[in-house]
Amino acid sequence: MASSFFPLCGVYDDYLNNNSSQSLGGLLSWTLRRVLYLMSKIFVSGRVSLFFMIFIIGLTFGFTDKSHLKWRVHLSWSVLHALAHISSALLVLLFVECMAEFVMKEGIIASQNAGNAPQSLSTGLASSIFDEYNAHFSHVLEDFHIVGNSTIFQPSQGILQSCRTDERMYEKLSSAFSWLYREAPLLKTALAVFDLPGAIGSTHLEMCKVLCAGDSPCTWSNEFMIYQQIDRLTILKYLSAIGLYFVIFAVPIAGNVFGSWLALSLVVFNCQYDEGFSSLRMEHYKNWLKFKIDSNGDLEMFAIGLKRVPKHWMKDPQWVGHRKEGAVTAPSWSLKTPSKWVPWRQSKKFLPEVIDHLKIKAESS
Questions:
Q1: Secondary structure (DSSP) of 284-336
Q2: Closest Cα to residue 1, out of 39, 58, 37, 44?
Q3: How much is the mean pLDDT over the chain?
């Protein structure tokens, strides 16, 4: 849903124009207004984003437990849950796009224009990770290559026959390393794959140059025909690179939104017990069922619960449930002390209690 808004060209300049003092109140006010504006754009002119918004609302509606809720409360609570996730996604969208333009505007990274010529940024650190490697770390592999080809590793006249195989294997590895280091651009290519800030910066400028041509609106909306002028490879490259940063920030926020929703569902609406307690991973408040068929054929069900589960145990000295070979012992339910282990500290809160009882009468023949 958020990917349909990429890129937000000029979003950082819009923030500076609306919060020139860079105060916290101005930041919160600008963020709230822009999130609401983006959400309104989804309803007014969105296509793919509108489809995913309706899909998310339907998904949350189906997930919400309606056993203790009226249909109006069920619908409202589901829509609020969906809007919280959508607002979080739009919030992360604003953040990553602002950071993408911030690092370029402040010269933290040096981007490249369409002609692959580095732009002049006074405070730029490097145009790529490979430039940083050449400036500070290239001598490490160079020294290793020199040592690997020195006479220290050359075979001596008196080398044993059993070492000849290891010697030839080392020569092949040394030759392969030399070819990869000097001939093939393996290192540069590998570092370029992880050079996400440089890739995001250069691609962002390239896309915004096309989208903003001729004073076209390009910050909060893009002309469809102008957007079609950008090749799909460029769009895929940009979405793949900035999508990694988007996921890093969106996942923990979405987890907090879902956890808060579960907590409010438990406390306020008395629903989502299974999801809420499994997420809390609490070892207390456990229960189990026991069934009994009496002499009349009636089925009785007892729900037995423990409010607190002991954490420390010790062996019960009164336990007599040892089974010896050939010995006939009574069933465990008839024993006075059927359990081998008892709580280390006795307390009433550890005692089981019947929390529910159900009896089904047998049909008379």
A1: SSEEEEEEEE-TT--EEEEEEEESS--S-EEE-TT------TT-----GGGSS
A2: 39
A3: 78
Over residues 6-51, the pLDDT tens digits come to 888 888 888 999 988 889 999 999 999 999 999 888 888 778 888 9
Nearest-angstrom CA–CA distance, 134 and 192: 13
The tokens for 297 are 């054929």
Tokens at residue 301, please?
């069900």
- CA separation for the pair 136, 139 (Å, rounded): 8
DSSP 169-210: HHHHHHHHHHHHHHTS-HHHHHHHHT-HHHHHHHHHHHHHHH
Strand partners of residue 302: 290, 357
Each residue of 287-321: pLDDT tens digit? 889 998 888 888 999 999 888 888 888 888 877 76
Say how far apart CA 118 and CA 127 lie, in whole Å. 7
**Which tokens is 292 given?**
């009994």
Q: Is the peptide bond before 7 cis (omega within 30 degrees of 0)?
A: yes
- The Cα diameter of the chain in Å comes to 103
Could you give the 3-state DSSP secondary structure of residue 219? coil
129 token code pair: 């990770």
Nearest Cα residue to 64 out of 257, 248, 261? 261
Surface-to-core class of residue 318, CB atoms within 10 Å of its CB (0-12 exposed, 13-18 middle, 19+ buried) = exposed
Task: Give the pLDDT confidence of 42-98 residue by residue, as tens digits.
Answer: 888 778 888 989 999 999 999 888 877 888 999 999 999 999 999 999 999 999 999
Contact 241, 196 (CB under 8 A): yes
The pLDDT of residue 165: 62
Instruction: Note the pLDDT of residue 84.
Output: 94
